[in-house]
Structure prediction request, 682 residues.
Amino acid sequence: MPNKKRPAALQARMKEVALRAKVSAMSVSRALRSPDQVSSETLRRVQKAVRELGYVPNRLAGGLKAPSRTQLAAAIVPSLQNSLFAATLQGLTDALRKRGINLMLGDSGYSREAEESLIAAFLAHRPCGLVLHDTSHTPGVRRLVRNAGIPVVETGNLVNRPLDLLVSYSNFAAARAMTDYLVGRSYRRIAFVGQIASLNERARERQRGYRAALTAAGLPLEEALTIETPGSFENGAKAIVQLMGVRPKVEAVFFAGDVLAIGAMLECNRRGWEVPKQVAIAGFDDWEISRRFAIPITTLDIPRYQIGERAAALMLRRLDGERGKLPPIDVGFRIIERAST
Amino acid sequence: MPNKKRPAALQARMKEVALRAKVSAMSVSRALRSPDQVSSETLRRVQKAVRELGYVPNRLAGGLKAPSRTQLAAAIVPSLQNSLFAATLQGLTDALRKRGINLMLGDSGYSREAEESLIAAFLAHRPCGLVLHDTSHTPGVRRLVRNAGIPVVETGNLVNRPLDLLVSYSNFAAARAMTDYLVGRSYRRIAFVGQIASLNERARERQRGYRAALTAAGLPLEEALTIETPGSFENGAKAIVQLMGVRPKVEAVFFAGDVLAIGAMLECNRRGWEVPKQVAIAGFDDWEISRRFAIPITTLDIPRYQIGERAAALMLRRLDGERGKLPPIDVGFRIIERAST
DNA sequence: TCCCGTACTGTTATCGATAACAGTAGTTGG
DNA sequence: CCAACTACTGTTATCGATAACAGTACGGGA
Prediction:
């Protein structure tokens, strides 16, 4: 039995690095985590031994003793397949990796219950921080994150009472601003197509923003001009077809999501409906494709990548020992005016 | 000092659960992992105590003692923002979550060196499995995964000598099949637009497939008919413009990526070029939008979600104790013929 | 010369769960 | 009636890194 001591894994332990470098394990630990605390000679020998053995530290052991430094963060998005969340994740991982922190990822499928069970599963790995895109949670979630004692960043909406930290934009203000813009362009009969409000706080807020703008402009709210539908190209197409059938004519449609707006634009192209002459189309979230149509789509730019970056930054400030409530960050939004309105 | 013992974290330990349930910690451990090994009475009391304390197990401790059961897997994709990889990830997480395994995620940015350092960082958390989309690796990667002694699944291409497990489709065969299809449709001057071959094995294989098909059909390979460019709508647009300038006329263009094909289609719409009359367009990877154009795009369907699912399944078989080489899985592909060709 | 601070290194106990082992009842079969 | 066996439970040592503490050596100032 040549490999009696380690039958399966061949990974070197810190002790073996220490042996080879002719120092104690503690010096190896220090050399790796705070190189300025050891002599240059020790550092050199440790680095050499690490290289030669291909040593990969064991963060399970480290995190067990020093729970605040597992070098692991967790994030939950509503869906992995939505490129908007992907941009935020990219910002997150890029910023965290600079500090040697890796990311654990899950999707809630837009369900609060799934979010709770996922958080519980994640916390079992003792991450040193948690990022949640959703801002509406079960009571269990509040208890879990309170007990975990780690920084939590929410990113989906600028809410009033965040769990802890908050980096986002206001869905309400954004939708209101876009509707205001359409009103300013002299459209009067403005329809709204968004995701199902009862399932999603962001969808709710956007719809609220739309209504607030109409009311402020003294325009009537018409039941038939609001459509709720899951986001997809197909549903955007269906919505525009439905709205084109309404009389008196709808002048502009605000799609609270670019998938929907793009689906609608493709349908208009197919049917030969002229945009914006017959109907104006506005989107939400500047997908690259929106600007590449023959009639590019007016839309809202949300700095999704930046949300991830700043969420990471906020989390790191806490990990660096900053106590107390850090104020929410509003990353804002920007209307991008194009030919479709 | 009321919280002398646990200053920051409020998380209950297994010992406390044991105390409350009036059993030993070992019984708690057993009740949670293999409920059939304890009496129903013990099980009941443990579950009650767990619920009341909101106990979240510490997988760092568990994984330290039993390294093969960290309940953590790691995956690396070339880019988080590409919806193709997202579909595979979704398949992965869905399948792994059923077994209580969570996923750690990173992106290599299409760089082999980045992949290596990411793998090293991930292995520090002692995942029980690793999924890599890339199939071309640095020597360091080979050493790392060998030493880690965990199952590794590659998913990006059907290669000959995989590191370990393999679930994919053949980029070569797919590109060849699509080119064969175009030849079968009587197109003779067929151009190819793909990602930069020197940077990416998949791009290389697709280009090779294209060439093999032309050669087999007795058609000449023309330098001017192959364009290499990073994937984006804009580059697809540029490519089609460039190719439309070539004389004698290009009859069909095979875009080895739907982003490129869609960018080209949008450009054709904008310029009023008729597809497929003036030029036929074929894509690769069935993006939903491809089927929604006025002239829907012929493309290749790759079962991306299934790749993730089956990668998870393969990994789990290893974790369930299955030794030896498991054969590679070819998930295949399917040509979807639409109006653009 | 002695004291103390600085810079570095080593030793010990510990984080929390679990494998390995060691019981203890109760039961079955010869 | 007792050995052997099943079903369950508890005890101890351990996984690998690190915090806390305890040196050691050297140098500068009084």
